[in-house]
Amino acid sequence: MSLRAKGLAYIVIMIYYNGDFTDIGFIEDETPRKLLCLIDLFSDRSVLKLGKKYPGLFGQDFRTAQDVYERFLSNRELSRDLWTDLVIKKRPRGEVAEGLKQLTFYQSEQKHAELAKRQIMADYESEKDDIASYFGKIFGFSPPKKLLIILLQTGAESGSTGRCIAINDSQTALIGYLFSTDEITNKKSMVLGIILHELLHSLIESNGILNRKNPDSYLFEETLVDYFLPNGILSHRLKHSEPRDIDIYQKENIIFRPSSKSMSEGLLPIIKEYDDSFAERTIWEHLKKSAFRIYLNE
Ligand SMILES: [Zn+2]
């Protein structure tokens, strides 16, 4: 099945689960991919790592990219609506589209995008029952009706990252996935784990789980989700990895996210406790009995 609107093409593959379904669609068009790139480059100051991580990305247009980001995407009011308008509601905003047209773009090889799609679909297909079951038991979440993934090959030598971009009333989650060739050809890749990590962010937001009046709720969310996926206590249950000691997950995750160190140390005994009676109740019920309840909505 395919949908086409305003220059955005979607390949949507239907997957059925217990009468309910999640469509997975891949977005490879230039405009959303450029937006994803800008967000990834500038929104968390990872720009300092530019030379290393993205050789050739935007090439000599780097300053233009920065301008486009500053003019359009650093506007908080605009950013989330922008994604919804451009990609979900398929209503391109002229001004933004014009700015993006000025940028030349790293071109990934089509065969790698095809490989990434095949890998995501095959992994999802073989795990979908377990994913739905664990998401329900651990988080009390049902999968969204649609999962749209913007695929972007970065030119980095290894690894991959994800971005939770938007969710539309629990029906459509939009996720960015930036991959290297090595990641999609590596047997021990974390591809689906990263996508599910981002999906959890989407569902936490759309289910209104966290108390956003607490500014640390974002750091809490990141640290908590890291404890499950892509390198945590749900990874081996979904057969993404061998079972490991929770202390090891904790130590490895703070290497990638040093800002979460003290939050992560505080959560460690609570996660261990949860793992001892895994999925017997939701993690939210479990957290309500701890000091971390301050991050939850009532
Ligand atoms: Zn995250």
Which labels suit this protein?
alpha/beta; 16% strand; 2 domains; disordered N terminus; 6 strands; 298 residues; six-stranded mixed sheet; 12 helices; single chain
Report on this model:
The chain has 298 residues and is of the alpha/beta class. It has two domains: 2-200, no CATH class; 208-295. It contains twelve helices and six strands. The chain has helices at residues 30-42, 50-53, 62-73, 76-88, 94-101, 110-139, 181-185, 191-206, 217-226, 246-256, 261-276, 283-287; strands at 2-5, 8-17, 20-27, 146-153, 160-168, 172-179. The longest helix has 30 residues, at 110-139. The radius of gyration is 19 Å and the shape is globular. 36% of the residues are buried. It binds zinc ion. The site of zinc ion has 4 residues, from helix 8 and helix 9. Zinc ion (ZN) binds next to helix 8 and helix 9.
Q: Describe the biggest sheet?
A: 6 strands, mixed
Low-confidence stretches: 1-19, 46-56
- How many domains is the backbone divided into? 2
Number of strands: 6
Tell me which ligands are bound.
zinc ion
- The neighbouring-strand order within the major sheet is 1-2-3-4-6-5
Structural class: alpha/beta
**Mean pLDDT, rounded to whole units?**
80
What's the helix-strand series? EEEHHHHHHEEEHHHHHH
Outline type: globular
Helix % is 40-55%
% residues in beta strands: 15-25%
Whole-angstrom Rg? 19 Å
Count of helical regions: 12
Q: State the end-to-end CA separation.
A: 41 Å
Structure, briefly:
With 298 residues, the protein is of the alpha/beta class. It has helices at 30-42, 50-53, 62-73, 76-88, 94-101, 110-139, 181-185, 191-206, 217-226, 246-256, 261-276, 283-287, and strands at residues 2-5, 8-17, 20-27, 146-153, 160-168, 172-179.
